[in-house]
Amino acid sequence: MGIISFIGFTLLVAGYAWWKTRETDEKSADGYYLGGRSLGAITIAGSLLLTNLSAEQIVGLNGQAFSEGILVMAWETLAAIAIVLTAVFLLPKYMKKGITTIPEFIEGRFDENTKAILSVLFLIAFSIVLLPTILYSGSLAFSTMFDLPTMLGMSEGTVIWVCVWSIGLIGIVYAIFGGLKAVAVSDLINAIGLLIGGLLIPYFGLKLIGDGDMMTGLNELWTENQDKFDVTGDVTSSIPVGTIFTGMMIAQMYYWGTNQSILQRVFGAKSLREGQKGMMLAAFVKFLIPVIVVLPGIIAWHVFEGNLSSPDQAYPELVKEVLPPALLGFFAAVLFGAVLSSFNSLLNSSATLFGFDLYKKFFKKDATEQQTVKAGKLFGLLIAVISMSIAPFIANAPDGLFDYIQQALGSLSVPILAVVVVGILTKKVPAIGAKIVMIAGVVMYLVSMYLRPKYQEAALAAADASGITDVVQLAIIKAEAFPHFLHIMGILFVVNIIIMLIIGLIKPKTDVYVPTQTQAIDTTPWKYAYIVGGLIVLLVLSTYLIF
Predict the structure, then answer these.
(1) Among positive and negative, which fits the CA dihedral 300, 301, 306, 311?
(2) What is the pLDDT of residues 262-274, one digit of tens each?
């Protein structure tokens, strides 16, 4: 029954996506990369949520909640603030230039070579970090939910390889041959399904705890796991409370304000008004998302009494435990759609970045739109194969799936955000400043990540020599030996900004930058953007006061 509902829902989504996009010209750049600039607010919101909310988010964040509790909701609730800031302040500047990619925006402010470096950084992030984690987490979820090693008579490692390549090959068909509109339309249906299916997990989980009564289960979960409902993490947690004011917001603003795979959905809007409305709707839903990506992890902690071989198994094990077979198939189909969505979105963005920003500069300067789109598709295929080859090895990540993603992305997010912010706020910082920061910023972060374990090992060795054996005290000593990676992100962001400003003072840009405007769409702002954005920010802050 579960397999039938899985196949049925998956085919329904594919058929609907084909029907909705059959008249879109996928051979033109606007048609393939931006869905013909025809996306409405609801489609944009659904696509934003599904691009972001995939198996790596659901499995990884619930795994962290299993270990640490509700404090990890900061990754979701604070994202709502970043989305609001992007919609109100950054999006109008992007849309007025009629751009297709963020590097294209950077080219207008600095130069063509700066754009090329930025495109390469994005592509590295997509192919080595984001795409492999999406494939691995989705494969882990399906393997656990359907007990595929037993069903197929294979080892767990072999099943992960089979799932990774199966998901990847299906994703290639969607993204490489369907274009942005096919991705966005399928995203909308899967977003609705994921919200419904995602809410079923805590519903059935709480009913299991409360012997059939959800409110009784919620009360028991609350009273017996008070330590899991504290948002103020200490120095040993993955999110010490101080990091919320440093690197956390840097990571959020990079992801929602400068990340090509996210903003490409909004660049496909039929107007600035629709883009802003779509982002605000996504921000409001993002504020509610911890019910799906955090609460089940705490429920799993209670149900399994903290006894699982890996925190990343918490969510798929809970799904298998609480969902009836028919609903299990439906939820697996929705999760499959979410995995495909994130995978598709990143592949489509990779094709866009290569075709639009690199192919014309380094390979064929006089390429036509059709040649550019074809080159982008071929490059997307290459990126897909690389990511499918890397994905199974992520099982060896020491700090959990979600932490691995954030730490790895830190090397790229800090310099990219610094360049975009300085590019928007100043007019005299030259291109050489942006180039230095994009290279030096990555190097500085990687050096800090190399030094961090060295300092921690030295601190633990000194503690051992002093006769300290208490586990809690040792954990505190290890955490305090070197700044948390989120603090490092905050520090390096400021350093990168200062470097660019100093270069701007020493060697200012001779021709003052004047932003150009291209009226590709109506760029009239949504008149309620500030009011709605302010209310969403107040909701987020009130949540922190409650917990």
Answers:
(1) positive
(2) 887 788 788 889 9
